[in-house]
Amino acid sequence: MDNQAIAEFILGWAQEARKLVQAGVDQDLGVKEKTGARDLVTVLDGELERFYRQKINQYFPHDRILGEEGQGDQAQSLKGAVWIIDPIDGTLNFVKQRAHYVTMLARYLDGVGQLGLIYGLDSGQSLLALAGEGVYLNGKALDLTKQKAMTESSLDQVLMSTEALPLDGDLGLYQLSKASLGLRIFGCAGLDVVHLALGRTGLYLNHLYPWDNAVALILADLCGFRVTDFKGQPLNLLDRQYVVMAYPKIHAQVLNYLKDRL
């Protein structure tokens, strides 16, 4: 099955997931803290992951899965076909605002991203990345002219975003943000990635898990931005890491800024 056909599957799954969320949004969400008051999980997070796992097992029975909520066997390597899924990204936004949250799915073959989807569970808007083919915004092929121009942008020409990293910490992110046009905090890694891929921002910094990075890495190859750790090394999609996502010139500026602060 080619990526276009698989994309039809996952778009349909995401649309069904949105209906599940809408049906349960006014019910008791069973909110629990994972690592603290800013890191929440709801019953719908688990329900959506189980839903995706059932669909993957039905249509791709030999594929393995790495999911945020661990609702089944977790892939321990990227060998073969592996799905990396985040059922609800931006759960704090979901709980407190009922807005600005997404679902993310990506499929990898032997460690190479094949396709990825970021889908707004509140808005129904989608950003689909097909490796070697293109990026599709709400089903329409994206003209990447703006992204090509962004490759020559410097930090003082763009907005940047971050979330979980302290601005007043040793990394000096407050000073870094002052060198940009301004700082934006979206509260949802998937939305940060969407804004970067669409050229609305030029830099995203955070401490991220594999399911936060999986779609971004596929988009990066298509849109021309870079995704590395804070030392400029490739990411390990099985670990949580400090991540720089930025267009090339900005990426180099940020790594140079960080090198004496790590």
From TrEMBL:
CDD domains: IMPase_like. Its cofactor is Mg(2+). This is Inositol monophosphatase family protein. Pfam families: Inositol_P. The keyword Transcription does not apply. Gene3D superfamilies: 3.40.190.80, Fructose-1,6-Bisphosphatase, subunit A, domain 1. Mg(2+) binds at residues 68, 86, 88-89, 212. It comes from Aerococcus urinae. GO terms for molecular function: inositol monophosphate 1-phosphatase activity; metal ion binding. GO terms for biological process: inositol metabolic process; signal transduction. Keywords: Hydrolase, Magnesium, Metal-binding. It comes from the Bacteria.
